């Protein structure tokens, strides 16, 4: 549980440069502290915690039950590992198979500090790159643990048969990703997420066959059950029959992914949502740094209003592709092959000579926007603006040969050709930033436990490891680290107190949760509105992208909050849900998700308004250098913003967890 030492709120007479833009939108709360993180030498802290964590003996494990929500890399690996340890595991996903979790869409690779290339990599360098890449807004202890555990992940996956790319001599190959100067990314062409998920799925199914894990597919979590202050179960909706079902356990683990779809257009699968974590937030779990969202620089540009999602092109393409725009606006309509070399602006190589095209995602994204804002974007006009830059492989094909490029990126090139109708082997790809990953999520301590005892959160659903910006190829690393190696060692400390008392079906907390779920469904089905769910989602996404997207301002965020509040009020009065609640009903599913997105969107804007600094993926126009780079304000904002739900009509409560750096010096990021 968080430390509850009370401190006085900040003075209302703070200097003007430290004025609280979000004053009046929230209530200051008590500070919060991670009481589980060990002290001592950095490289010994994880070993110390593993030893200090209590153990549930094998006989007791057979009587201890765990619910895991989500079957992506984090959820599938956690369920498999806990099942193999002897716990009774119930695994839930809304897909028709665990193999369809969105982790399957990850393309480029997974980081690990193996130093196979002998280029100076190490656990400490991975730790340092991650801290720096996150713009010094993550915890030292958590990030170092992630770097330590990374080395075990590759061995685990190779043992499962994951077909990582190999060099001619048979050794595992590596490539580079943005934000680093070493090659530490293991990959399987452009299908790394799919291959890793198949490995985790096999481990999960092995435990299903052994009887320790039971999978519930096409079941969506719609509420968390908290009894006597502890997470003890969930309420789900059978998405085929519409039946509302209740499941109990000694502990609940959320591995339900991120909330990037609050922007409507994103690289996430259409089904990705925030409901599992938002329901937990409303029950007392703090939401940390919700405004820290990542804009991925390498996506196929928007082509019009007909689109419902965007397509990611792996960041690994930046290893061999060169990013450029025409130097002259008049050349933007030309065939790129007709633009002379001296008339091309390889702007990342020009601005950041040390890292070039491999700068971190937030920097690459922001510079792409700047080029297009200058009128040098390429591709078709959408609403009067060309939103695209070139990703050109001509030099790499000439240097390495087409066959070598096909071997490394063939499926990505094929995907681009099918979507755009253009051949990337002969014509440069067109790319533009899009919403991709979220660094924010439910607040967890070093054990991955939230402010609700018995509720653990892993993978993208928590905030813990990436700070204000995630380095490429680190999502898969964190998901598998949490699932295979971290959670199993920390959850046992909590379960050592079990088994816990059985929960009665008519317990008041259970009945209250069931009633709330049914009332919500009844409202949607009986509401006599005229607007579709998707129309509200698209409008919310437009607000979020315009005012809380790649660039944020005080005036824009205030406007967004007002617009979201008006839109949410209209949603509850005027949304129209067709069909029946007692059957397959995708309109009803989306209604519940969009209702939660509307509340989340407002909190994201308040969080962004409160943080009057630029760091990582959060860029406040009021806080930038003369060169247009992000300007942090460490003396004011070196903290985790942990938000507490205060009720539907009350402002959220802000709890601050101070970030203390003992082993890394905080300084302005430079990739030049």
What does this structure look like?
One of its GO terms (molecular function) is steroid dehydrogenase activity, acting on the CH-CH group of donors. 35% of the residues lie in helices and 15% in strands. With 672 residues, it is an alpha+beta fold. It starts with 26 loop residues before the first strand and ends in a 14-residue tail after the last strand. Strands 1-22-21-11-19 form a five-stranded mixed sheet. A five-stranded parallel sheet has the order 6-3-2-10-20. It is built from 17 helices and 22 strands. Helix 3 (73-84) packs parallel to helix 6 (192-210) and helix 14 (533-548) packs antiparallel against helix 15.
Topology diagram in text:
Blueprint: E1 27-28, H1 45-52, H2 58-61, E2 65-69, H3 73-84, E3 88-92, E4 110-111, H4 123-133, H5 140-159, E5 185-186, H6 192-210, E6 213-216, E7 219-227, E8 230-238, E9 244-248, E10 251-254, H7 275-282, E11 287-288, E12 293-299, E13 322-326, E14 344-345, H8 347-351, H9 361-373, E15 381-382, E16 385-386, E17 389-392, H10 394-400, H11 402-420, E18 429-438, E19 441-442, E20 455-457, H12 475-495, H13 508-526, H14 533-548, H15 554-574, H16 586-610, H17 634-637, E21 639-644, E22 653-658
Parallel strand pairs: 1-22, 2-3, 2-10, 3-6, 10-20
Antiparallel strand pairs: 4-5, 7-8, 8-9, 11-19, 11-21, 12-18, 13-14, 13-17, 15-16, 17-18, 21-22
Helix pairs in contact: 3-6, 3-12, 4-5, 5-12, 10-11, 14-15, 14-16, 15-16
């Amino acid at each position: 549980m968080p430390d509850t030492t009370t401190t006085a709120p900040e003075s209302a007479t703070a200097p003007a440069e430290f004025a609280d833009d979000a004053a009046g939108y929230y209530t200051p709360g008590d500070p919060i502290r991670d009481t589980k993180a060990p002290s001592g030498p950095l490289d010994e802290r994880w070993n110390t915690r593993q030893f200090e964590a209590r153990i549930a003996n094998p006989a007791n494990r057979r009587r201890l039950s765990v619910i895991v929500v989500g079957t992506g890399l984090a959820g599938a690996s956690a369920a498999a590992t806990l099942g193999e340890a002897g716990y009774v595991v119930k695994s839930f996903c809304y897909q028709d198979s665990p193999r369809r979790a969105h982790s399957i869409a990850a393309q480029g690779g997974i980081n690990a500090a193996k130093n196979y290339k002998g280029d100076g990599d190490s656990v400490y360098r991975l730790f340092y790159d991650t801290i720096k890449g996150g713009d010094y807004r993550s915890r030292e202890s958590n990030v170092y643990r992630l770097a330590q555990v990374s080395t075990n992940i590759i061995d685990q996956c190779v043992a499962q048969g994951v077909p990582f790319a190999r060099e001619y001599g048979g050794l595992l190959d590596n490539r580079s990703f943005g934000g680093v100067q070493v090659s530490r990314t293991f990959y399987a062409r452009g299908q790394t997420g799919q291959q890793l998920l198949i490995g985790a799925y096999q481990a999960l199914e092995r435990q299903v066959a052994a009887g320790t894990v039971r999978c519930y597919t096409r079941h969506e979590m719609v509420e968390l059950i908290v009894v006597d202050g502890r997470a003890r179960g969930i309420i789900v909706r059978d998405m085929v029959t519409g039946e509302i079902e209740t499941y109990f356990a000694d502990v609940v683990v959320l591995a339900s992914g991120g909330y990037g779809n609050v922007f409507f257009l994103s690289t996430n699968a259409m089904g990705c949502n925030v409901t599992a974590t938002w329901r937990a937030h409303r029950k007392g779990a703090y939401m940390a740094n919700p405004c820290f969202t990542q804009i991925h620089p390498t996506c196929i540009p928007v082509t019009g209003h007909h689109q419902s999602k965007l397509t990611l092109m792996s960041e690994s393409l930046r290893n061999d592709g060169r990013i450029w725009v025409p130097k002259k606006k008049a050349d933007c309509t030309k065939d790129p092959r007709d633009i002379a070399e001296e008339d091309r602006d390889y702007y990342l190589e020009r601005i950041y000579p040390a890292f070039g095209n491999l700068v971190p995602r937030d920097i690459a994204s922001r510079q792409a926007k700047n080029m297009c804002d200058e009128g040098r974007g390429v591709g078709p006009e959408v609403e009067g603006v060309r939103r695209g830059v070139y990703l050109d492989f001509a030099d790499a094909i000439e240097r390495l040969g087409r066959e070598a490029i096909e071997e490394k990126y063939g499926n990505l090139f094929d995907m681009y050709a099918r979507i755009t109708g253009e051949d990337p082997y002969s014509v440069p790809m067109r790319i533009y930033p899009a919403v991709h990953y979220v660094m924010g999520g439910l607040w967890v301590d070093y054990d991955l436990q939230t402010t609700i005892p018995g509720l653990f959160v892993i993978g993208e659903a928590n905030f813990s490891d990436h700070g204000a910006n995630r380095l490429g190829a680190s999502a898969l690393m964190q998901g598998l680290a949490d699932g295979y190696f971290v959670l199993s060692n920390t959850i046992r400390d909590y379960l050592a107190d079990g088994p816990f008392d059985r929960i009665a079906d008519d317990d008041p907390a259970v009945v209250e949760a069931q009633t709330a779920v049914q009332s919500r469904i009844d409202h949607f089905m009986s509401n006599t509105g005229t607007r579709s769910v998707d129309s509200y989602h698209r409008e919310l996404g437009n607000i979020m992208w315009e005012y809380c997207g790649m660039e944020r301002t005080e005036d824009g965020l205030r406007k967004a909050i007002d617009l979201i509040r008006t839109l949410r009020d209209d949603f509850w009065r005027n949304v129209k849900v067709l069909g029946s609640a007692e059957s397959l009903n995708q309109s009803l599913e989306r209604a519940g998700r969009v209702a939660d997105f509307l509340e989340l969107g407002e909190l994201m804007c308040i969080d962004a308004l409160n943080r009057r600094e630029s760091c990582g993926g959060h860029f406040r126009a009021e806080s930038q250098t003369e060169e247009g780079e992000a300007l942090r304000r460490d003396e004011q904002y070196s903290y985790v913003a942990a938000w507490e739900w205060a009720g539907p009509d009350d402002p959220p409560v802000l709890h601050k967890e101070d970030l203390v750096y003992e082993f890394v010096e905080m300084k302005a990021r430079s990739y030049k």
